[in-house]
Write a structure and sequence with these properties.
The protein is an alpha/beta fold. It contains 10 helices and 9 strands. It is 47% helix and 17% strand. The chain binds NADP nicotinamide-adenine-dinucleotide phosphate.
């Protein structure tokens, strides 16, 4: 590997925020990318279109052998080097608790939390070895403020945020920066936000994957602790702490319905 090469691994790179992140990172001189998701055809097409060396691993990250497979790939194809891990793969399946129960909570935790923890566990030794290095966890504003029918998704993102803060405190001394990005509504394949985009009154709430990709760059290589995207979503998180009664009133009012947007599986 040439001196100055920086290897970055992006999960959920086949579409949406992960794809935009791969494209953003590829612009940096000396970058080598590892793209991870289930759809191999998408990963291959993206790898071939990028201006830097890019390899891929087509794997279901909830699978028992996924972390070991990704690590083996890094060792075989990139000399075991890893300077940036972007834990971005994730999904949401809407439904109230009375109807979807523990099964839906478990489904979210397996992908949005456990898979992140398991992959990080497998790759942390490589990140420490390559320090200064970084981890960016893609959480959500839903990891600060929960809406009806998103409890399972929010639980997984609240968990991810708490664990990320602790990991930051532990890994600082080892030269591994740990930060997070908290997107609001971002129009993607999995989270189309069609209801909000259709209306002039709510269109301004929706941002683009490329904006999140820039925030991921600022938090990872840039060393920032966290970024909301768009930035004004931080207000919701602050109000949740300072004015819980107000937030509860807003989120249970009749006009809050469209804020629980449909995700890919409902469309
Ligand atoms: N868009 C938003 O409004 C929004 C808001 C807040 C937070 N986020 C978070 O941002 C992240 C990216 O979301 P997105 O909007 O870009 O969604 P997306 O367009 O649905 O992309 C999700 C990515 O995750 C991958 N993925 C899903 N399940 C996987 C599995 N079992 N194993 C491996 N890869 C898997 C998908 O690829 P394959 O299907 O090819 O596996 C895809 O590349 C997620 O963590 C999401 O929770 C999104």
């Amino acid at each position: 590997m040439a001196a100055g090469t920086r290897v970055a691994l992006v999960t959920g790179a086949s579409t949406g925020i992960g794809e935009a992140t791969a494209i953003r990172l590829a612009r940096e001189p000396g970058t080598e990318l590892v793209l991870v998701a289930r759809r191999e055809d998408r990963l291959r097409a993206l790898a071939e279109s990028l201006p830097c060396r890019a390899t891929y691993v087509a794997v279901d990250l909830t699978g028992a052998d996924a972390p070991a497979r990704v690590r083996a790939h890094l060792e075989a194809e990139h000399g075991g080097a890893l300077h940036l891990l972007v834990n971005n793969a994730g999904a949401a399946w809407r439904g109230d608790f009375a109807s979807t129960g523990h099964a839906n909570v478990q489904r979210h935790m397996e992908l949005n939390f456990d898979a992140v923890v398991r992959l990080t566990e497998a790759l942390l030794p490589l990140l420490r070895q390559a320090a200064p290095s970084a981890i960016v966890n893609v959480a959500s504003t839903a990891g600060r403020v929960a809406r009806a029918r998103t409890g399972a998704y929010s639980a997984s993102k609240f968990a991810l945020i708490g664990w990320t803060d602790a990991l930051y405190a532990e890994e600082r001394a080892h030269g591994v920066h740990v930060g997070m990005v908290l997107p609001g509504f971002i129009a993607t394949e999995g989270f189309p936000a069609t209801e909000l985009k259709e209306k002039a009154l709510t269109r301004w709430l929706v941002s683009k994957p490329e904006v999140v990709a820039e925030a991921i760059y600022e938090v990872g290589p840039g060393g920032k602790p966290e970024r909301y995207v768009p930035r004004f979503y931080a207000v919701a998180a602050i109000l949740r702490i300072l004015a819980p009664r107000l937030i509860r009133r807003i989120l249970t009012s009749g006009s809050a319905g469209p804020l629980t947007t449909k995700t890919a599986d409902e469309i």
